[in-house]
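assembly run, all chains below
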Amino acid sequence: MTSKKPVDFAKDFAELEKIVAWFEKDDVDLEEAFKKFETGLELAAGLKEYLQTVENRVTEIKKKFKGLVEE
Amino acid sequence: MHIFSVSQFIEFLNDALVTLTPRDQIAIEGEVSGFNIAQEQWVRFDLKDESGLINCFLTVWQLKQPLEDGMKIRVRGYPKVYPKYGKFSFVVQEIELAGEGSLKRAFELLKKKLAAEGLFAPERKRILPRFPKRVALITSAEAAAYTDFIRILNNRWAGVEVNLYHTAVQGASAVGEIVKAFAYFNEHAEAYDVLVLVRGGGSMEDLQAFNSEEIARAIYGCRIPVVVGVGHERDETLADYVADVRASTPSNAAERVVPSREEIFGTLNFTAEHLCERMLGRAREPLRAIEHAVYQFDHFWREVGYKMNDTIRELRGATEKIAQKIVVRRAALNERARVLQNVDPQRVLGRGYSVVYVAGRVLKDAAQVDTGGQIRVQLNNGALLGKVISKEL
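ok done. output:
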Protein backbone atom coordinates (compact mmCIF):
# COMPACT_ATOMS: atom_id res chain seq x y z
CA MET A 1 0.00 0.00 0.00
CA THR A 2 1.45 3.30 -1.06
CA SER A 3 -1.20 5.72 0.14
CA LYS A 4 -0.06 7.83 3.14
CA LYS A 5 -3.38 9.17 4.31
CA PRO A 6 -3.64 9.61 8.09
CA VAL A 7 -4.80 6.45 9.83
CA ASP A 8 -8.07 6.65 11.70
CA PHE A 9 -7.40 3.73 13.99
CA ALA A 10 -10.94 3.23 15.29
CA LYS A 11 -12.44 3.51 11.79
CA ASP A 12 -9.92 1.20 10.14
CA PHE A 13 -10.16 -1.34 12.93
CA ALA A 14 -13.94 -1.39 12.61
CA GLU A 15 -13.57 -1.82 8.85
CA LEU A 16 -11.25 -4.78 9.40
CA GLU A 17 -13.70 -6.37 11.82
CA LYS A 18 -16.42 -5.92 9.20
CA ILE A 19 -14.34 -7.77 6.61
CA VAL A 20 -13.68 -10.64 9.02
CA ALA A 21 -17.41 -10.87 9.67
CA TRP A 22 -18.09 -10.81 5.91
CA PHE A 23 -15.91 -13.86 5.39
CA GLU A 24 -18.06 -15.80 7.84
CA LYS A 25 -21.00 -15.57 5.46
CA ASP A 26 -22.06 -18.74 3.67
CA ASP A 27 -22.09 -17.63 0.07
CA VAL A 28 -19.39 -15.20 -0.91
CA ASP A 29 -18.37 -14.20 -4.38
CA LEU A 30 -14.78 -15.25 -4.99
CA GLU A 31 -13.91 -12.09 -6.90
CA GLU A 32 -15.22 -9.94 -4.07
CA ALA A 33 -13.54 -12.16 -1.49
CA PHE A 34 -10.15 -11.49 -3.08
CA LYS A 35 -10.75 -7.76 -2.97
CA LYS A 36 -11.86 -7.82 0.64
CA PHE A 37 -9.01 -10.09 1.58
CA GLU A 38 -6.49 -7.67 0.12
CA THR A 39 -8.12 -4.67 1.79
CA GLY A 40 -8.19 -6.57 5.08
CA LEU A 41 -4.50 -7.38 4.99
CA GLU A 42 -3.66 -3.83 4.00
CA LEU A 43 -5.71 -2.49 6.90
CA ALA A 44 -4.07 -4.87 9.38
CA ALA A 45 -0.61 -3.94 8.13
CA GLY A 46 -1.45 -0.22 8.20
CA LEU A 47 -2.75 -0.42 11.76
CA LYS A 48 0.34 -2.31 12.94
CA GLU A 49 2.64 0.19 11.28
CA TYR A 50 0.67 3.03 12.81
CA LEU A 51 1.07 1.61 16.31
CA GLN A 52 4.80 1.26 15.80
CA THR A 53 5.47 4.70 14.42
CA VAL A 54 3.04 7.11 16.06
CA GLU A 55 3.46 8.68 19.50
CA ASN A 56 1.13 10.30 21.98
CA ARG A 57 1.00 14.06 22.15
CA VAL A 58 0.36 16.08 25.29
CA THR A 59 -0.54 19.75 25.18
CA GLU A 60 -1.61 22.01 27.99
CA ILE A 61 -4.62 24.21 27.58
CA LYS A 62 -3.36 27.75 27.87
CA LYS A 63 -4.77 30.29 30.26
CA LYS A 64 -6.16 32.52 27.51
CA PHE A 65 -8.29 29.67 26.20
CA LYS A 66 -9.35 28.75 29.69
CA GLY A 67 -10.56 32.32 30.06
CA LEU A 68 -13.09 31.88 27.28
CA VAL A 69 -15.49 29.97 29.47
CA GLU A 70 -14.86 31.95 32.61
CA GLU A 71 -17.22 34.68 31.36
CA MET B 1 -18.62 62.56 72.94
CA HIS B 2 -20.37 61.22 69.92
CA ILE B 3 -24.05 60.46 70.17
CA PHE B 4 -25.35 57.67 67.89
CA SER B 5 -28.88 56.74 67.09
CA VAL B 6 -29.46 53.01 67.80
CA SER B 7 -29.32 51.99 64.17
CA GLN B 8 -26.35 54.25 63.53
CA PHE B 9 -24.52 52.62 66.40
CA ILE B 10 -25.30 49.15 65.12
CA GLU B 11 -24.02 50.15 61.71
CA PHE B 12 -20.84 51.56 63.27
CA LEU B 13 -20.39 48.43 65.33
CA ASN B 14 -20.87 46.15 62.34
CA ASP B 15 -18.25 48.08 60.32
CA ALA B 16 -15.84 47.79 63.21
CA LEU B 17 -16.51 44.09 63.60
CA VAL B 18 -15.79 43.38 59.95
CA THR B 19 -12.53 45.30 60.15
CA LEU B 20 -11.58 43.49 63.33
CA THR B 21 -12.10 40.02 61.89
CA PRO B 22 -10.59 39.84 58.41
CA ARG B 23 -12.19 36.83 56.73
CA ASP B 24 -9.05 35.43 55.14
CA GLN B 25 -7.18 35.40 58.43
CA ILE B 26 -9.75 34.15 60.89
CA ALA B 27 -11.80 30.99 61.15
CA ILE B 28 -13.84 29.75 64.08
CA GLU B 29 -13.81 26.08 64.93
CA GLY B 30 -16.58 24.48 66.93
CA GLU B 31 -19.30 21.86 67.03
CA VAL B 32 -22.61 22.25 65.22
CA SER B 33 -25.78 22.18 67.28
CA GLY B 34 -29.40 23.13 66.67
CA PHE B 35 -28.93 22.86 62.88
CA ASN B 36 -32.06 23.84 61.01
CA ILE B 37 -33.21 25.06 57.63
CA ALA B 38 -36.15 27.50 57.53
CA GLN B 39 -38.37 27.96 54.48
CA GLU B 40 -35.87 25.91 52.48
CA GLN B 41 -33.68 29.02 52.33
CA TRP B 42 -32.25 30.10 55.68
CA VAL B 43 -29.75 27.95 57.45
CA ARG B 44 -29.21 28.47 61.15
CA PHE B 45 -27.11 26.64 63.68
CA ASP B 46 -25.09 27.25 66.78
CA LEU B 47 -21.37 26.79 66.84
CA LYS B 48 -20.20 25.91 70.33
CA ASP B 49 -17.49 24.55 72.51
CA GLU B 50 -17.50 23.67 76.24
CA SER B 51 -18.16 27.19 77.43
CA GLY B 52 -19.18 29.31 74.44
CA LEU B 53 -21.84 29.55 71.72
CA ILE B 54 -22.34 31.70 68.59
CA ASN B 55 -25.45 31.81 66.38
CA CYS B 56 -24.52 31.22 62.78
CA PHE B 57 -26.47 32.12 59.71
CA LEU B 58 -26.19 31.46 55.97
CA THR B 59 -28.35 30.65 52.96
CA VAL B 60 -28.81 27.12 51.60
CA TRP B 61 -26.98 28.12 48.41
CA GLN B 62 -23.87 28.80 50.42
CA LEU B 63 -24.08 25.43 52.09
CA LYS B 64 -21.72 23.27 50.05
CA GLN B 65 -21.64 20.22 52.27
CA PRO B 66 -24.14 18.39 54.38
CA LEU B 67 -24.18 19.46 58.02
CA GLU B 68 -25.69 17.93 61.08
CA ASP B 69 -25.49 18.35 64.82
CA GLY B 70 -22.31 17.11 66.41
CA MET B 71 -20.10 17.80 63.40
CA LYS B 72 -16.86 19.66 63.98
CA ILE B 73 -16.43 22.50 61.48
CA ARG B 74 -14.47 25.64 60.77
CA VAL B 75 -16.39 28.66 59.55
CA ARG B 76 -15.25 31.85 57.88
CA GLY B 77 -17.36 34.94 57.49
CA TYR B 78 -18.09 38.02 59.56
CA PRO B 79 -19.90 38.84 62.76
CA LYS B 80 -22.98 41.00 62.59
CA VAL B 81 -25.57 42.52 64.86
CA TYR B 82 -29.05 42.43 63.30
CA PRO B 83 -30.47 45.91 63.66
CA LYS B 84 -34.08 44.82 63.96
CA TYR B 85 -33.62 42.48 66.92
CA GLY B 86 -30.25 43.58 68.23
CA LYS B 87 -29.15 40.00 68.02
CA PHE B 88 -25.55 39.05 67.47
CA SER B 89 -24.79 36.34 64.95
CA PHE B 90 -22.03 35.16 62.67
CA VAL B 91 -22.70 35.37 58.93
CA VAL B 92 -21.09 32.28 57.47
CA GLN B 93 -19.50 32.51 54.01
CA GLU B 94 -17.47 29.37 54.00
CA ILE B 95 -17.60 26.12 55.90
CA GLU B 96 -14.79 23.64 56.17
CA LEU B 97 -15.19 20.26 57.79
CA ALA B 98 -12.70 19.72 60.60
CA GLY B 99 -11.51 16.30 61.65
CA GLU B 100 -11.85 12.84 60.15
CA GLY B 101 -15.16 12.21 61.94
CA SER B 102 -16.93 15.17 60.33
CA LEU B 103 -15.46 14.40 56.93
CA LYS B 104 -16.66 10.81 57.10
CA ARG B 105 -20.08 11.83 58.29
CA ALA B 106 -20.42 14.49 55.59
CA PHE B 107 -19.22 11.96 53.04
CA GLU B 108 -21.89 9.46 54.10
CA LEU B 109 -24.65 12.08 54.11
CA LEU B 110 -23.75 13.46 50.69
CA LYS B 111 -23.30 9.98 49.27
CA LYS B 112 -26.79 9.07 50.42
CA LYS B 113 -28.27 12.24 48.98
CA LEU B 114 -26.57 11.89 45.59
CA ALA B 115 -27.39 8.19 45.40
CA ALA B 116 -31.06 9.01 46.02
CA GLU B 117 -30.87 11.50 43.17
CA GLY B 118 -29.49 8.82 40.88
CA LEU B 119 -26.01 10.24 40.33
CA PHE B 120 -24.40 6.84 40.81
CA ALA B 121 -26.98 4.87 38.82
CA PRO B 122 -25.23 2.12 36.82
CA GLU B 123 -27.64 2.53 33.90
CA ARG B 124 -26.37 6.02 33.19
CA LYS B 125 -22.73 4.95 32.98
CA ARG B 126 -21.42 5.46 29.48
CA ILE B 127 -19.14 3.07 27.64
CA LEU B 128 -15.74 4.40 26.65
CA PRO B 129 -14.71 4.27 22.99
CA ARG B 130 -12.29 1.42 22.37
CA PHE B 131 -9.70 3.56 20.61
CA PRO B 132 -9.87 7.13 21.90
CA LYS B 133 -8.20 9.83 19.85
CA ARG B 134 -8.49 12.87 22.06
CA VAL B 135 -8.33 12.73 25.82
CA ALA B 136 -9.22 15.60 28.14
CA LEU B 137 -7.12 15.46 31.29
CA ILE B 138 -7.80 17.35 34.49
CA THR B 139 -5.08 17.17 37.14
CA SER B 140 -2.12 19.01 38.53
CA ALA B 141 0.79 19.07 36.09
CA GLU B 142 3.18 18.98 39.04
CA ALA B 143 1.73 15.89 40.65
CA ALA B 144 2.95 12.30 40.41
CA ALA B 145 -0.54 11.33 39.30
CA TYR B 146 0.01 13.23 36.05
CA THR B 147 3.37 11.59 35.27
CA ASP B 148 1.99 8.14 36.19
CA PHE B 149 -0.96 8.58 33.90
CA ILE B 150 1.12 9.78 30.93
CA ARG B 151 3.79 7.11 31.46
CA ILE B 152 1.29 4.25 31.42
CA LEU B 153 -0.55 5.85 28.49
CA ASN B 154 2.69 5.98 26.48
CA ASN B 155 3.65 2.43 27.46
CA ARG B 156 0.35 1.06 26.32
CA TRP B 157 -0.79 2.99 23.31
CA ALA B 158 0.04 5.49 20.60
CA GLY B 159 -1.58 8.22 18.59
CA VAL B 160 -3.56 9.81 21.40
CA GLU B 161 -3.74 13.53 21.82
CA VAL B 162 -3.98 14.53 25.46
CA ASN B 163 -5.16 18.00 26.40
CA LEU B 164 -4.19 18.83 29.95
CA TYR B 165 -6.13 21.33 32.00
CA HIS B 166 -3.89 22.06 34.95
CA THR B 167 -5.68 22.65 38.27
CA ALA B 168 -4.98 22.50 41.97
CA VAL B 169 -6.09 19.12 43.29
CA GLN B 170 -6.25 20.05 46.97
CA GLY B 171 -6.74 23.14 49.06
CA ALA B 172 -9.34 25.86 48.97
CA SER B 173 -9.13 26.60 45.24
CA ALA B 174 -9.20 22.98 44.02
CA VAL B 175 -12.98 22.58 43.78
CA GLY B 176 -13.48 25.83 41.90
CA GLU B 177 -10.64 25.16 39.45
CA ILE B 178 -11.72 21.61 38.74
CA VAL B 179 -15.32 22.71 38.18
CA LYS B 180 -14.03 25.33 35.73
CA ALA B 181 -11.98 22.72 33.92
CA PHE B 182 -15.11 20.59 33.52
CA ALA B 183 -16.99 23.61 32.21
CA TYR B 184 -14.21 24.22 29.66
CA PHE B 185 -14.18 20.65 28.36
CA ASN B 186 -17.95 20.47 28.40
CA GLU B 187 -17.97 23.48 26.12
CA HIS B 188 -15.73 21.57 23.68
CA ALA B 189 -17.25 18.16 24.32
CA GLU B 190 -17.39 17.19 20.63
CA ALA B 191 -13.62 17.30 20.36
CA TYR B 192 -13.03 14.67 23.05
CA ASP B 193 -13.60 10.95 23.38
CA VAL B 194 -12.98 10.72 27.09
CA LEU B 195 -12.28 12.96 30.08
CA VAL B 196 -9.88 11.84 32.79
CA LEU B 197 -9.69 13.25 36.32
CA VAL B 198 -6.77 11.97 38.37
CA ARG B 199 -5.02 12.68 41.63
CA GLY B 200 -2.59 10.71 43.77
CA GLY B 201 -3.29 9.33 47.21
CA GLY B 202 -3.68 11.34 50.38
CA SER B 203 -5.62 11.72 53.60
CA MET B 204 -9.36 12.14 53.52
CA GLU B 205 -8.80 15.84 54.05
CA ASP B 206 -6.43 15.97 51.05
CA LEU B 207 -9.03 14.24 48.90
CA GLN B 208 -11.83 16.45 50.17
CA ALA B 209 -12.31 18.22 46.83
CA PHE B 210 -13.21 14.88 45.22
CA ASN B 211 -15.93 14.42 47.82
CA SER B 212 -17.51 17.78 47.10
CA GLU B 213 -20.99 18.07 45.71
CA GLU B 214 -19.84 20.56 43.04
CA ILE B 215 -17.35 18.17 41.51
CA ALA B 216 -19.79 15.28 41.77
CA ARG B 217 -22.33 17.36 39.85
CA ALA B 218 -19.73 18.55 37.34
CA ILE B 219 -18.92 14.91 36.52
CA TYR B 220 -22.61 14.09 36.38
CA GLY B 221 -23.29 16.95 33.98
CA CYS B 222 -20.27 16.27 31.77
CA ARG B 223 -21.10 15.47 28.13
CA ILE B 224 -17.88 13.49 27.73
CA PRO B 225 -17.58 10.06 29.38
CA VAL B 226 -15.56 10.53 32.57
CA VAL B 227 -12.87 8.31 34.09
CA VAL B 228 -11.87 9.12 37.65
CA GLY B 229 -8.72 7.74 39.24
CA VAL B 230 -8.15 9.25 42.65
CA GLY B 231 -5.86 8.09 45.41
CA HIS B 232 -4.83 4.53 46.11
CA GLU B 233 -6.82 1.43 45.50
CA ARG B 234 -8.66 1.50 48.80
CA ASP B 235 -9.61 5.19 48.62
CA GLU B 236 -13.16 5.94 47.69
CA THR B 237 -14.47 9.32 46.75
CA LEU B 238 -17.83 10.56 45.54
CA ALA B 239 -16.17 11.52 42.26
CA ASP B 240 -15.36 7.81 41.81
CA TYR B 241 -18.99 6.87 42.26
CA VAL B 242 -20.35 9.40 39.76
CA ALA B 243 -17.71 8.64 37.13
CA ASP B 244 -18.64 6.51 34.14
CA VAL B 245 -15.55 4.44 34.82
CA ARG B 246 -13.93 4.22 38.23
CA ALA B 247 -10.22 3.60 38.09
CA SER B 248 -8.41 2.57 41.24
CA THR B 249 -5.34 4.76 40.66
CA PRO B 250 -4.09 7.28 38.07
CA SER B 251 -2.09 4.48 36.40
CA ASN B 252 -5.17 2.31 36.28
CA ALA B 253 -7.05 5.23 34.69
CA ALA B 254 -4.59 5.07 31.77
CA GLU B 255 -5.15 1.31 31.54
CA ARG B 256 -8.89 1.83 31.40
CA VAL B 257 -8.68 4.57 28.78
CA VAL B 258 -6.48 2.94 26.13
CA PRO B 259 -6.01 -0.68 25.06
CA SER B 260 -2.67 -2.42 25.28
CA ARG B 261 -0.49 -2.19 22.19
CA GLU B 262 0.67 -5.81 22.59
CA GLU B 263 -2.87 -7.03 22.87
CA ILE B 264 -4.03 -5.22 19.75
CA PHE B 265 -0.89 -6.33 17.93
CA GLY B 266 -1.79 -9.90 18.77
CA THR B 267 -5.34 -9.33 17.61
CA LEU B 268 -4.13 -7.85 14.31
CA ASN B 269 -1.76 -10.75 13.67
CA PHE B 270 -4.44 -13.24 14.47
CA THR B 271 -6.93 -11.40 12.27
CA ALA B 272 -4.52 -11.42 9.32
CA GLU B 273 -3.87 -15.15 9.72
CA HIS B 274 -7.55 -15.82 10.06
CA LEU B 275 -8.26 -13.85 6.88
CA CYS B 276 -5.61 -15.85 4.99
CA GLU B 277 -7.15 -19.11 6.12
CA ARG B 278 -10.61 -17.95 5.19
CA MET B 279 -9.42 -16.76 1.79
CA LEU B 280 -7.71 -20.07 1.10
CA GLY B 281 -10.83 -21.87 2.17
CA ARG B 282 -12.94 -19.75 -0.15
CA ALA B 283 -10.51 -20.24 -3.04
CA ARG B 284 -10.60 -24.01 -2.60
CA GLU B 285 -14.35 -23.99 -2.79
CA PRO B 286 -14.70 -23.95 -6.63
CA LEU B 287 -12.14 -26.75 -6.84
CA ARG B 288 -14.15 -28.74 -4.40
CA ALA B 289 -17.23 -28.03 -6.52
CA ILE B 290 -15.52 -29.51 -9.60
CA GLU B 291 -14.37 -32.54 -7.65
CA HIS B 292 -17.84 -32.95 -6.44
CA ALA B 293 -19.26 -32.67 -9.95
CA VAL B 294 -16.80 -35.31 -11.22
CA TYR B 295 -17.74 -37.58 -8.41
CA GLN B 296 -21.42 -36.98 -9.12
CA PHE B 297 -20.89 -37.78 -12.83
CA ASP B 298 -18.94 -40.90 -12.05
CA HIS B 299 -21.50 -41.92 -9.57
CA PHE B 300 -24.24 -41.39 -12.14
CA TRP B 301 -22.66 -43.70 -14.69
CA ARG B 302 -21.91 -46.30 -12.12
CA GLU B 303 -25.54 -46.16 -11.16
CA VAL B 304 -26.54 -46.54 -14.81
CA GLY B 305 -24.26 -49.57 -15.06
CA TYR B 306 -25.84 -51.12 -12.01
CA LYS B 307 -29.27 -50.49 -13.46
CA MET B 308 -28.38 -52.09 -16.77
CA ASN B 309 -27.04 -55.16 -15.05
CA ASP B 310 -30.22 -55.37 -13.10
CA THR B 311 -32.28 -55.10 -16.25
CA ILE B 312 -30.25 -57.75 -17.97
CA ARG B 313 -30.58 -59.97 -14.97
CA GLU B 314 -34.31 -59.39 -14.94
CA LEU B 315 -34.57 -60.04 -18.65
CA ARG B 316 -32.59 -63.21 -18.30
CA GLY B 317 -34.85 -64.34 -15.49
CA ALA B 318 -37.92 -63.52 -17.54
CA THR B 319 -36.58 -65.44 -20.55
CA GLU B 320 -35.91 -68.46 -18.41
CA LYS B 321 -39.38 -68.29 -17.04
CA ILE B 322 -40.82 -68.10 -20.53
CA ALA B 323 -38.68 -71.04 -21.64
CA GLN B 324 -39.88 -73.05 -18.70
CA LYS B 325 -43.43 -72.13 -19.51
CA ILE B 326 -42.86 -73.26 -23.09
CA VAL B 327 -41.53 -76.60 -21.88
CA VAL B 328 -44.52 -77.07 -19.63
CA ARG B 329 -46.90 -76.12 -22.38
CA ARG B 330 -45.21 -78.45 -24.81
CA ALA B 331 -45.47 -81.34 -22.38
CA ALA B 332 -49.13 -80.60 -21.91
CA LEU B 333 -49.65 -80.47 -25.64
CA ASN B 334 -47.84 -83.81 -26.12
CA GLU B 335 -50.01 -85.35 -23.48
CA ARG B 336 -53.10 -84.10 -25.18
CA ALA B 337 -51.85 -85.28 -28.55
CA ARG B 338 -51.24 -88.69 -27.05
CA VAL B 339 -54.78 -88.87 -25.68
CA LEU B 340 -56.16 -87.69 -28.96
CA GLN B 341 -54.09 -90.24 -30.84
CA ASN B 342 -55.69 -93.03 -28.81
CA VAL B 343 -59.11 -91.97 -29.92
CA ASP B 344 -58.20 -91.25 -33.52
CA PRO B 345 -60.59 -93.47 -35.71
CA GLN B 346 -57.90 -93.84 -38.32
CA ARG B 347 -55.69 -95.56 -35.77
CA VAL B 348 -58.62 -97.94 -34.93
CA LEU B 349 -59.04 -98.71 -38.60
CA GLY B 350 -55.35 -99.44 -38.74
CA ARG B 351 -55.89 -102.28 -36.34
CA GLY B 352 -58.34 -103.85 -38.85
CA TYR B 353 -61.63 -102.27 -37.86
CA SER B 354 -63.83 -100.57 -40.43
CA VAL B 355 -66.62 -97.96 -40.34
CA VAL B 356 -69.89 -98.35 -42.30
CA TYR B 357 -71.63 -95.16 -43.51
CA VAL B 358 -75.16 -94.87 -44.87
CA ALA B 359 -75.83 -91.64 -46.65
CA GLY B 360 -72.74 -90.09 -45.01
CA ARG B 361 -73.68 -91.11 -41.49
CA VAL B 362 -71.99 -93.79 -39.35
CA LEU B 363 -74.16 -96.89 -39.21
CA LYS B 364 -74.44 -98.27 -35.70
CA ASP B 365 -77.68 -100.39 -35.95
CA ALA B 366 -78.62 -102.99 -38.72
CA ALA B 367 -82.24 -101.87 -38.50
CA GLN B 368 -81.26 -98.49 -39.81
CA VAL B 369 -80.57 -99.83 -43.23
CA ASP B 370 -82.92 -101.59 -45.67
CA THR B 371 -82.02 -104.77 -47.51
CA GLY B 372 -80.70 -103.74 -50.90
CA GLY B 373 -79.66 -100.29 -49.53
CA GLN B 374 -76.35 -98.78 -50.43
CA ILE B 375 -73.52 -98.70 -47.86
CA ARG B 376 -69.99 -97.33 -47.76
CA VAL B 377 -67.35 -99.32 -45.85
CA GLN B 378 -64.32 -97.26 -44.78
CA LEU B 379 -61.15 -99.31 -44.34
CA ASN B 380 -57.73 -98.30 -43.15
CA ASN B 381 -56.68 -98.01 -46.72
CA GLY B 382 -59.44 -97.16 -49.17
CA ALA B 383 -63.20 -97.80 -49.02
CA LEU B 384 -65.73 -100.31 -50.41
CA LEU B 385 -69.13 -99.48 -51.91
CA GLY B 386 -71.74 -102.24 -51.61
CA LYS B 387 -75.43 -103.31 -51.34
CA VAL B 388 -77.05 -104.99 -48.31
CA ILE B 389 -77.96 -108.58 -49.26
CA SER B 390 -79.56 -109.55 -46.03
CA LYS B 391 -79.70 -108.53 -42.35
CA GLU B 392 -79.27 -110.42 -39.10
CA LEU B 393 -81.12 -108.73 -36.30
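The first helix of chain A runs from residue 9 to 23.

Chain A touches chain B at residues 7, 9-10, 13, 16, 19-20, 23-24, 28, 30, 33-34, 37, 40-41, 44-45, 47-48, 50-61, 65-66, 68-70 (CB under 8 Å).

not gonna interpret more than that til we talk
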